[in-house]
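Before relying on records like the one below, remember that each one covers exactly one chain. Contacts with other chains, cofactors or solvent are not represented anywhere in the record.
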Amino acid sequence: MTNLELLIEEIQQLKDPSLGITLKESSGLLGHEFNDQVLDLKIAIKNRKKDESTLKLDIARLVKIKYQIPGLRIEFFDSKFKLDNEEKITYIGVISGKGGVGKSSVSANLALAISRLGFKVGIIDTDVYGSSIPSIFKLPIEPLDTTEDDEIIPALYGDIQVISPEFFMPKNQPLMWRGPMLGKLITHFFKSVCWDPETKYIIMDLPPGTGDIQLDVQTFVPESPMIIVTTPHPNASHVALKAGLGAMEIGHPILGVVENMSYYYNDCRQEKDYIFGQGGGHMVADALKTSVLIEIPINQPLNPESFLYDLEDMNGKLYLALAKKILEKL
């Protein structure tokens, strides 16, 4: 065995500090090249921010001191390795074509319904220009705490963990950012948040349309399933279809369509009034070869000061049924 082979074997025996296993066990050494007395390494580790400098120092000791190789370049990547006891988080996107169709209300009430089923849930408000998730949960707009490793600690509504741009800006100040700045913020939301280790599902409230943030989300959680929200009105459903097609084009499966504000139940006449027309949700579902998951009526919560539906509410029962249907599909 050559000195280079011995060195590579020793590097593979170094441990990924966050995983507690060797780079060999985690397939962390992605590649290596040795030219002109310079060793190039590509290494994947679980927590780059926390462990990169420590591992780099350990490798440098081996390469430069023990094996007397003067040149060393290391490129680090994020490890996708999962330990057997490590819970995998399922990300679920909620998208729409237009604003004003109740996408954020659906996201929040869906997260609440999933938590009622006994699962630990998070919600990421990626609708940067129209953030409303903290308002729906009536959370105070104030800076969030961080861990010793500079990870963001989410705000809490009961057991629901919430991350939103609202917590990073002065209250009521508009956010006027271009794409690169948005990208940095979204990166923090996906890479630098200290989620509860028992978190099972994270709902992503995405901005309406097909823009930069949708592409960023695809980078961090590729192939994450999406739910499309529309109203029955053709203006909303036509654009919702575009959002669905865009999501499919970049690899996201569609779980189905939620038709929000489907009708108003008239107690006096004991019949449904279709004030926004009919058929928009089914049009989108048919075009995308999926199904309408549920039709949510216009209905004020029993608590008029809340945006969230209790289980005693008709809509609360519908959201619980929606949550069960979605989890069955995953």
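The CA atoms of residues 120 and 139 lie 18 Å apart.
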